[in-house]
Amino acid sequence: MELLKVDSLEVAKEKLYNEYKKGLGIEIEEVLVSDSFNRVIANNVISKVNVPDFNRSTVDGYAVLAKDTNGSSDTIPTFLKVVAESKMGEECKTKIVSGECVYVPTGGMLPIGANAMVMLEHTENLTNEKIAIYEATPEWKNVVHIGDDIKEEETVIKKGKKISAGDMGLLSSIGVESINVYKKWRITIISTGDELVSNEKDYKFGKIRDVNSNLLLGLCIENNFEIVNKFLIKDDENDLREIINDCKKNSDVVVISGGSSKGKKDLSAKVIYELSSTGVLTHGIAIKPGKPTITAYDKKTNTVLIGLPGHPIAAFLLFKLLIVDLYEKITCEKNKSLQKYLELCISENLPASPGRTTFQLVSIENDKAIPIYGRSGLIHTLSMAMGYIIMEENQEGINKGERVKVYYL
Amino acid sequence: MELLKVDSLEVAKEKLYNEYKKGLGIEIEEVLVSDSFNRVIANNVISKVNVPDFNRSTVDGYAVLAKDTNGSSDTIPTFLKVVAESKMGEECKTKIVSGECVYVPTGGMLPIGANAMVMLEHTENLTNEKIAIYEATPEWKNVVHIGDDIKEEETVIKKGKKISAGDMGLLSSIGVESINVYKKWRITIISTGDELVSNEKDYKFGKIRDVNSNLLLGLCIENNFEIVNKFLIKDDENDLREIINDCKKNSDVVVISGGSSKGKKDLSAKVIYELSSTGVLTHGIAIKPGKPTITAYDKKTNTVLIGLPGHPIAAFLLFKLLIVDLYEKITCEKNKSLQKYLELCISENLPASPGRTTFQLVSIENDKAIPIYGRSGLIHTLSMAMGYIIMEENQEGINKGERVKVYYL
User: Fold this and answer.
1) How far is CA A398 from the centre of its chain?
2) Rounded distance between C-alpha atoms, residue A302 and residue A214, angstroms
3) A112 near B CB under 8 A
């Protein structure tokens, strides 16, 4: 029997990335800021304005010349003349000189000449036109300067950032109403297997319920991809060829799960070979689980073709390691997240697995990483797992109590 | 001037939770598993089936009686008679006895009587009916037992879990096609302020661009809430009353941002007081930033009313600390995430802030938490921040190099 000639994970990723780069890349579209949550921004955003664009009060009170308040206290107040009121949302055109002040509400504009705000609590209204000030107030106290938050020409968001709620607020604050983002990848999911059924009414003893369609659907939503087609088909070469050929036209990625191991019914590799401009780039990756994985790229339609193992955990991992990884690499995606892993002690010995990179699912209890065992087909483990640890090809086993990096699942 | 009588954050949360519990709670709806990503499941899921529900081969090869292979090796093969072939997705009704075997593909059903699988690689096809076996194979080698993954009557997902891609696969594997989940909260967002403008064509010098609408919109999407109404209104008591009264009918939460401090234009508290069955529960929380916050609940319409500070960072934090927190508490939401905080050393001294709980935004560089300073109105800091640390009311300052918990933003 012919054995798979396997690539390391790094080589498989590199080959796919290099081919994809030769194509048209990921398209860019303009979206409203209100529609931009979790989208990856495609260029730097430079502010055209200062924020604030006027000296703004952070309190309700009186705008003054700081030096006028020198020496003021509860027992020795300073008396100032109120010459105007600054109104929220309006330009304050008044100019004050020594001995004068202007009422300014929180968020309002300081009059020309003023360089500090005295809080209302430290003043007393004597007449309509005269107030007493009971506190010495240093320069620029209770004032946000022009440009204190954001300066004109400042780069406020960098290309590749995944837009957060905070970024949406930031963009609104500088008057940006729409931004360029990378288009969501349109994904086709094809599950193959004579044994698979997609709903209970078709279920008979001996059949297998299709797990990967909903699993991969969930992963697409999680990663902000759009599902454009979803198929469950028999192991029929002609059907598979026809569907992939058709879906290439409106998909950025076609994912075929199942049928990628060298068994009796290995059709995916053959069909993927025929329908991609590169032929098969990788057929077999030296990782556990996930060996029977196929990658290819069709330049004509700018479509990535991925054959994932039928085993759910392997399909899950490879979707992340190949497809999500490629999108992030191409878009330079940077998340604001704290960290992608956590360092914890492992609860038991883990044997080495020479010659291939091993992904071990773990749960976490009492600050310890606890390996979850199960053959790669066991979907239950995926629901329980909180992360995974990676054992490199040449790494020796890990001893109980050793610190390991637990990556987010 | 009347000062706010403030609650601690814990008291404010407790008051709101206790009132909300007296009402109708959060409704439950049935959704397809394919539509359930990130939804919070409302009851335990108990499997009605075993997974797998037959003894399943994990390899392509021959199902045998393990004892028949005793002593087999490359030089001394065992010869067995092939009596049938198990087909993928079909029941295998064959029963084998000593000396017999059945071909079974990966994922196929073992025949009755078989208790091990010999990999194809360790066999040789001699004639159509006869094979040689070159490896001794222990009992249950290469076989997944009935119920190995999931047992009938086993609780596979617990109430309150936020459904992940893995859970969607798990549910499919046991034939569950729809589940009960808590309804998404329908949120109304109202920004108030004479000075606010929602788009550039209305902008004039002195105006403030509305930041909170898009900021809170992003937070709603992030937390899987649905925005049913979005308003930007002037500081007009009648308008505010009319809109809140109207929106209570189709909203689970009405969020009013701005207008909650005791300034000239504090209308929110008055209107919220009138329109809630509880009156104002909390007016002012002893946290920094975020003091001028209002909570109330209207039992008749089952609506939570929240007045958030106008300052974006305060609004952002309080949305999480009050609204997201309440939804999680009511639904018993449990995420599968690794951990909600990270322990890091702080890069500089932080002064104490007696009498109120302080939330300090931080970024992270070289495994150190770096405080990001800025008055609470400075939206830029929110975009840069990666998390926050909490200093309790009675806590002394934190010294440079001390370990702190950095919570995810």
Assistant:
1) 32
2) 25
3) no
pTM over the 0.90 mark: yes
Look at A1 and B211 and tell me if their CB atoms are within 8 Å. Answer: no
Classified as helix, coil or strand, A288 is strand
Predicted pLDDT of residue A373:
80
pLDDT tens readout for residues A138-166: 999 999 999 998 999 999 999 999 999 99
Q: How many residues does chain A have?
A: 409
> How deeply is A132 buried, as exposed, middle or buried, from its count of CB atoms within 10 A (0-12, 13-18, 19+)?
middle
**Do B107 and A208 meet the contact criterion of CB atoms below 8 Å apart?**
yes
Would you call A175 and B203 a contact, using CB atoms and an 8 Å cutoff? yes
| Nearest chain B residue (CA) to A265 | B105
d(CA A165, CA B260): 22
Dist. CA B323–CA A79, nearest whole Å: 46
Q: What is the rounded CA–CA span in Å between residue A22 and residue A183?
A: 18
Which among A218, A182, A176 has a CA at the least distance from the CA of A38?
A182
What does the alpha-carbon distance between residue B203 and residue B197 come to, in Å, rounded to a whole number?
Answer: 6
Q: How far is A188 from chain B (nearest CA, A)?
A: 15
C-alpha A21/C-alpha A18 separation (Å) is 5
Residues of B in contact with A338 (CB under 8 A): 342, 364, 386-387, 406, 408
Query: Rounded to whole angstroms, how far apart are CA atoms B195 and A54?
Result: 13
CA A261/CA A4 separation, integer angstroms: 9
Q: Given CB atoms, is A221 within the 8 Å cutoff of chain B? A: yes
Q: Taking the CB of residue A144, how many other CB atoms lie within 10 A of it? A: 21
Sheet bearing A186-192, strands edge to edge: A226-233, A186-192, A253-257, A303-308, A294-298, A280-283
Q: A194 — contact with chain B (CB < 8 Å)?
A: yes
Instruction: For B149, list phi and psi in degrees, rounded to 5.
Output: -90, -55
Q: How far is A202 from chain B (nearest CA, A)?
A: 11
Residue whose C-alpha is closest to residue A392's, from A363, A362, A351, A355: A355
A285 shares contact with chain B (CB less than 8 Å): no
Q: Quick one: pLDDT at residue B97? A: 97
